[in-house]
Amino acid sequence: MATEPLKITAHLVDGRINSSDGLLSLDSIIYYAWFKRWYPEKFLGTLKLDDLLIGLPLPKDNHGLYQASVGFYHQYTQTTEYWNSEPDWEHGHIYLDKNKGKINPSVGVQRAYHTAETIRVVSDPVFYCRGKLEKIPQYLSYVKTLGKKGSVGWGRVKSWTVEPAAEDWSFWSPKHGLMRPWPTQYQSELGHDLTGYFVDQTAIRPPGWQKRNQNLCYIPDFIE
Q1: How confident is the model over 25-54, as pLDDT tens digits?
Q2: How does 155-191 read in b/e, with b if 16+ C-beta sit within 10 Å?
Q3: pLDDT tens-digit readout, 100-127
Q4: Domains of the chain
Q5: How far apart are CA 6 and CA 19, in angstroms?
């Protein structure tokens, strides 16, 4: 099954995404969907990943970078909202401190939270990649939210559009320039001048939380 240049649009319900840096990486989104499709037990914390062979419908370059961009969008405003979580009082007896006879809401699973979150109100994010047109919509059907804390209502996705594109804009485009985080040590290999791009430590492949998948990178100008 051949790969081809694609343009992908996430149609949001209300445009509110929870993201401190604003980066929405397509490879991470499809990585999440791949596990939702094939190994949903990962999200229950019962799956060991060491021996899994992950087959995303995206090709890689010779450095193991997926040919997939970040999401590009207009940002209309940015605000701070709060995520609150209270102890589960209904089942609190399960978590009683046997010595003190009470629940401690400052630690453990019964901890109470009042956390500031960065909320961006944005247009529908648009991504570009080289991928398998037959497969990618199947995976994206598992992605119902973008950004953090989707379970509480931020970043809800109404639908996805996946369509062929005239050119491969997964790494670089004449419209946006740099299309995905690019490691600084590979600067010359891209074939374009990256002077002036913001440089930061970020994920270069999923899962982004693993240190081995993070690098000092040039960051795309993804807010239009």
Answers
A1: 999 999 999 989 988 877 666 666 655 567
A2: bbbeebebeebeebbbbbbeebebbbbbbeebeeeee
A3: 556 555 555 555 666 788 999 999 999 9
A4: 4-86+105-219 (3.30.70)
A5: 25
